[in-house]
Amino acid sequence: MSRILVVGGGAIGGITAAGVDADVVVLDANEAHVAKLSDPGLVINEAAPVKLEAVSTVDALDGEFDFALIAVKAPLHHVAIPPLVERGGIGAFVTLGNGLIQDRMVELVGEGNLLACLVEWGGSNVGPGELIRDSEGGYAVGELDGTITDRAQQLAAALEPIGHTRVTDNVRGMIWTKLQVNSTFTGLSAISGLRYGGVAEQGADAVFALWEEGVTVARAQDLRLEEMHHVDPYAFGPAPLRKMMEHMANVRPSMLQDLDAGRETEVDVVNGGVATKGRELGIPTPHNDKVVELVHSMERGERAPDPQYLHEVAKA
């Protein structure tokens, strides 16, 4: 059985830790949350508590781990990861986060020490020791160079009980496929205050504009996008949008949760990731640029989420 360290016990990390087929330890800086994880245990969707071994400092960790699953947000990577690299004893680091974070993480953990893992479901934090899983789905695991390795298959087997997990030779294409969803729906959810379903109903023009920008930038990189929730990313329109919302309408993404809590968001690696790559390739991305602008203004307290901003993005 694998031994896995989950770094960050919030919605993605906590739900993963509770269901993974492994000897698991959670590392989370929130001491109140850590205490609840240990006793009475983590409550997911009001089910019976699941007791987890959890610590709040790197110094409290004991032994070696096959994998360290990094589930903290991108702005915290430079704080959370270096102490683990210095400690050693970790076979491979694994990205669980959103956006174009992989190359930045390689700089922190070293070439060859990173696996990419795409999470295809969503969750929300309720309070210490309590989380909600608000959509179904599994994971996709892969090496950044496209090879199929034993360690990727080992991790996929451990994650399978949580949701169907596949090993892919196209992880960079899948990273952008997920970025399509996040840059389209997460940013719009954050600026509007709506769940994904509300965004689809009230902001379809903005949805299609952002989606087209992302596909254009992906094509310029020769990336191969893949189906997500039975939707062909190259043939996105009203009917595929309705199909996608059958699985995702209830998602309340972390970017909106961060704005509500007064925390820094990941917009710079989500919509900002599309925009940055577009600039590198000489491709305008005005709709993604507008989302970045609006989210940063909300981080500064200059605006508050409101559905009216969906129309601003559509007109950008």
Automatic annotation (TrEMBL):
PANTHER family: 2-DEHYDROPANTOATE 2-REDUCTASE (PTHR43765:SF2), 2-DEHYDROPANTOATE 2-REDUCTASE-RELATED (PTHR43765). Pfam families: ApbA, ApbA_C. It comes from Solirubrobacter phytolaccae. It comes from the Bacteria. GO terms for molecular function: 2-dehydropantoate 2-reductase activity; NADP binding. Keywords: NADP, Oxidoreductase. This is 2-dehydropantoate 2-reductase. Belongs to the ketopantoate reductase family. Residues 170-299 form the Ketopantoate reductase C-terminal domain. Residues 4-145 form the Ketopantoate reductase N-terminal domain. One of its GO terms (cellular component) is cytoplasm.
